[in-house]
Design a protein that fits this description.
This protein is mainly alpha-helical. The protein contains 21 helices and two strands. A two-stranded antiparallel sheet has the order 1-2. A hairpin with a 7-residue loop joins β1 and β2. The chain starts with a helix and ends in a 6-residue tail after the last strand.
Length: about 450
């Protein structure tokens, strides 16, 4: 009950004190003699590390001399911080923490300096309440206010901490929509961008690297908080990238997210890939970029990249990818036998890779209209039987199912006067024999 009284007592101190100053000069109350005794008492208690003994004098001064000096609040904050850290009883500990949060507010009310005090309050808030589900919303409010007041001058300690608080609220309280998370994330990155720019102007390379690491950590936490997919990339990262098209960090985000979510047909993905290639032409990016150029039939752009990665390929897997890319070029040019030869070469180059089989399956499926004079006939559908085998070898069950769905029906076989189990040769460039099967209906 006594501790509850302390908390209520501190809360009752929120009264108007008129125009505040920074409390940088001592301002004694009318009863200066008593105030001096109280000041000496709390200083002596703190020196002896008897923090509980210091609380009485501190409360008296905060009540009767709220603008005495900023030293009063520095001492009070330190005292309640120590008491909270030492207390083992959960209820008592939380009481000290709540009192500590109120003292920060009292300092702002009496002495101003809101930006600096709020930043310190935010550090204490996440330290003590960051994992307390009942207090998470209030911690978020402290950080929101801190970032609102501080602009680009938020303390470095509060950058990643803010993202942590956002994640904890979203995960545990479900009180933030994706848009609300993005709004705060954008504010965070704006602050970091400003700090990076300032560090660049001052030629502080260590600070630049520090902020880059912080941003990477924030992005990592964001990825655990929201779903990183194409829609998210277009909403959050694409606008930033368009505004800063030479930003390698943003290019990497757009590139990786869209590649993972298989939306590389987005124009911004290609631009991002080109930016990354210019910054660091490593094998993976070069390969993906070359593949996109081939898909777009930009062979004049693909050819030099293919030559380049041939010199970089060092493992069987990388060398096999070059064979696959060569096959893709022949496929796009309409040379399907040449494409199949290249895909087969990839399987020889790297026997552990199954991509060549899948590519051949795609090649066969694309030839359905070429292998029969009668559209929709059993003869035309033989290519799906051939494609199924390739997809089976590749392990791609989705494409296996798609091929099975296009097998000839029993009616197709009757019309062609064929029987299941017979061997038939595809009368086109594929030039392979397959065993006739009917689609299950």
């Amino acid at each position: 009950m006594q501790r509850k009284f302390v908390l209520l007592f501190l809360a009752s101190l929120f009264v108007s004190v008129g125009t505040w100053a920074q409390c940088t000069e001592y301002k004694w109350p009318q009863d200066q003699a008593t105030a001096e005794k109280k000041a000496d008492a709390f200083k002596a208690a703190i020196k002896d590390q008897n923090y509980k003994a210091a609380t009485g004098s501190l409360k008296w001064l905060m009540t009767n001399a709220p603008q005495w000096h900023s030293d009063l609040y520095v001492a009070a904050i330190d005292t309640y911080d120590k008491l909270a850290a030492q207390e083992v009883d959960p209820a008592a500990k939380q009481n000290y923490i709540d009192s500590l949060m109120l003292i920060y507010d009292l300092r702002i009310q009496s002495c101003g300096d809101e930006m600096n005090v709020l930043n310190r309050k935010a550090i204490s808030a996440i330290k003590y309440n960051g994992q307390n589900k009942e207090k998470l919303a209030s911690v978020l409010a402290v950080f929101d206010k801190t970032f609102e007041v501080s602009g680009n001058n938020v303390y470095d300690n509060n950058l990643f901490a803010y993202m942590t608080v956002i994640k904890n609220n979203a995960d545990q309280l479900k009180n933030l929509s994706e848009d609300q998370i993005v709004q705060r994330y954008n504010k965070l990155t704006e602050v970091i961008d400003s700090k990076v720019k300032r560090a660049e102007e001052q030629n502080k390379s260590a600070d630049i690297e520090k902020y880059k690491k912080v941003l990477n950590a924030i992005d990592g936490t964001l990825a655990k908080t929201v779903k990183f997919n194409c829609a998210f990339a277009k909403k959050v990262f694409e606008p930033k990238f368009k505004a800063n098209p030479n930003d390698v960090g943003l290019a990497k985000k757009v590139y990786q997210i869209m590649l993972a979510d298989k939306c590389t047909d987005e124009p911004s993905w290609l631009v991002a890939a080109e930016v990354l290639y210019k910054a660091n032409p490593e094998f993976g990016v070069t390969k993906e970029l070359c593949q996109k150029y081939i898909q777009n039939k930009s062979f004049d752009k693909a050819a030099p990249l293919l030559t380049e990665i041939q010199s970089k390929a060092s493992t069987p897997a990388e060398k096999a990818w070059i064979d696959l890319l060569k096959g893709d070029i022949e496929f796009q040019k309409g040379n399907k036998p040449g494409a199949r030869d290249a895909y087969k070469a990839a399987l020889t180059t790297d026997p552990t890779s199954k991509d060549g089989f899948e590519k051949m399956g795609d090649l066969y499926v694309s030839s359905a209209g070429e292998c029969s004079k009668e559209p929709g006939s059993a003869e035309e559908k033989l290519v799906y039987i051939a494609a199924f085998q390739q997809y089976k070898n590749s392990g791609n069950r989705e494409k296996m199912e798609q091929s099975l769905a296009k097998y000839p029906t029993a009616a197709d076989l009757t019309k062609a006067n064929w029987k299941a189990g017979e061997s038939k040769k595809l009368a086109c460039w594929i030039d392979e024999t397959v065993v006739v099967k009917a689609r299950k209906e």
